Amino acid sequence: MANRPLTILLVEDEPAHAEMIKRVLAGPRGELEIVHLSDGESALDYLFQRGSYQGATRPHMVLLDLHLPRVQGLDVLRQIRESETLRMLPVVVLTTSEAEQDVVRAYEHHANSYIVKPLDFRKFTDLMTDLRYYWTEWNCYPWN
């Protein structure tokens, strides 16, 4: 795990999904910092430290929904990958879309992973637990 507490940027516009994801990812002792934003424009402002997000903590990873208000998820991903300072930031697309063109486009924009949200509550919770474990225990980051 990194030297500083892990920060995950969750970009999700569905409040029920966001609450469930935050609850599982934060862990039983709340050891992760979860920053939740509900639209793509706010996510870009946060990542590029613009406006009210000047000095914001750089996240260790981004969980990104595709279908967002204001700026779509693929546009957020594209801008991350075009940025010299953010291009190595892990981005996991977490969406309800199983459309092949969405999967292909996400990987064309260098998503680290594409995960379809399960409809079943238990499967969704298990998925989030596994995702949390992978990114906090197994994965190494190139920065602290």
Concise overview:
With 144 residues, this protein is α/β, with parallel strands linked by helices. Helices cover 40% and strands 16% of the residues. A five-stranded parallel beta sheet has the order 2-1-3-4-5, sandwiched between helices.
Keyword list:
144 residues; Rossmann fold; 5-stranded parallel beta sheet; 5 strands
How would you explain this protein's 3D organization?
This protein has five helices and five strands; from the N terminus they run βαβαβαβαβα. With 144 residues, it is an alpha/beta fold. The chain has one domain: Response regulator (Rossmann fold), CATH 3.40.50. The chain has a five-stranded parallel beta sheet with strand order 2-1-3-4-5, with helices on both faces. Strand 3 (61-64), helix 3 and strand 4 (91-95) form a beta-alpha-beta unit.
- Counting H and I runs of at least 4 residues, what is the number of helices? 5
Going by CATH, the homologous superfamily would be Response regulator
**CATH fold-level topology:** Rossmann fold
Radius of gyration: 14 Å
Number of domains: 1
Q: Kindly report the oligomeric state of this protein.
A: single chain
